[in-house]
Amino acid sequence: MGRRYEVGVIAGDGIGPEVAEAAIPLIEKAAVAAGAEIAWTRYPWGCDYYHEHGRMMPADALDRLAPLDAIFFGAVGRPDVPDHVSVWELILPIRQAFSQYVNLRPMRLLPGVSTPLAGRGAADLDMVCVRENGEGEYSGLGARYDQGTPEESAEQIGRFTRRGIERVVRYAFSLAASRPRRLLASATKSNALQHSMVLWDEVVREVAADFPEVEWRPYHVDALAARMVTHPDTLDVIVASNLFGDILTDLGAAITGSLGLAPGANLNPDRTHPSMFEPIHGSAPDIAGRGVANPIGAIQAGALMLRELGLPSAHDALQNAVEQVLTEGTVRTPDLGGVAGTSEMAEAVAEAM
Ligand code: GGG
């Protein structure tokens, strides 16, 4: 047996545990076939933990996660805990503390999956969003004032640093340079956000000078959202701030078939701390507990994890199996128009491996 990897699992809430537990045996199988071993440690953190302990994860959670090779995350949030509490006490602190400043979200139309954009040049839809993942609109800065009075107001500060923009934009340009089309779209809104997005545009222009081989242009984020629907075939790599990237990638998932298919990787490119891998969907309380959630987003997140851990053949085996099952089209979860359950879908992928 080759290298042993320590992976922490935070399955979280709602459909998180259902899709994470369906994906884990497949990730394990792919790793073992590549001669590696994964030791999984499960952390029961999330909304149940919150009700028992008054917090989403323990005070020493980050210390316990820090030595791991990777974190595999399910989903966070439930109607009985305010969303801003669950998200701000679990997933966002991990991203920030571990400098996971790149949120990589591929948006590719997989074989056998239909897009609501049929006939709009979407046949070869293959985009990837590099979302800034630690600052911007999700810096957590701001306050409520004069609560309960007619003068009540709230401020949410989007804090962008030159360093924070520069590192994620550089990652995005490098990625674009490595892809066949070498295109990069930068999501901005500098006509209205006259401080933060003007800095964003300046830094993008500076970094672009180091990548003359990449054809790039800025788009106001509203125009970019429209372009994703009208001309998705003209887009390749998209670099976006935290909030813009969050929104654009849900749109990207919708036009590539289903939110249930979409994977995400919260990357620490400097490898000073573990990266974290998750399906991009949330906890979906409306279908939680029914065993019908699509596990493909979690399985593809697992494939990204294997690639980042240095197991490209394991990534390919898992990814090819997913694509084979989708191409055959006989096993489909309800989000893809079928009747298969979570475990049936995962079993089909296992058989295809
Ligand atoms: N599987 C990830 C998840 O549960 N996401 C919930 C969510 O909305 N997170 C906020 C974010 O991605 O920024």
TrEMBL record:
InterPro entries on file: ICDH/IPMDH (IPR050501), IsoCit/isopropylmalate_DH_CS (IPR019818), IsoPropMal-DH-like_dom (IPR024084), TTC_DH (IPR011829)
Isopropylmalate dehydrogenase-like domain: residues covered: 6-349
Catalytically driven reaction(s): (R)-malate + NAD(+) = pyruvate + CO2 + NADH
Gene3D superfamilies per record: Isopropylmalate Dehydrogenase
Swiss-Prot/TrEMBL keywords: Manganese, Metal-binding, NAD, Oxidoreductase
Top EC class, one word: oxidoreductase
Enzyme nomenclature, EC number: 1.1.1.83
Molecular function, one GO term: tartrate dehydrogenase activity
Cofactor field: Mn(2+); Mg(2+)
Family: Belongs to the isocitrate and isopropylmalate dehydrogenases family.
Protein's name according to its UniProt entry: D-malate dehydrogenase (decarboxylating)
Phylogenetic placement of the source organism: Bacteria, Pseudomonadati, Gemmatimonadota, Longimicrobiia, Gaopeijiales
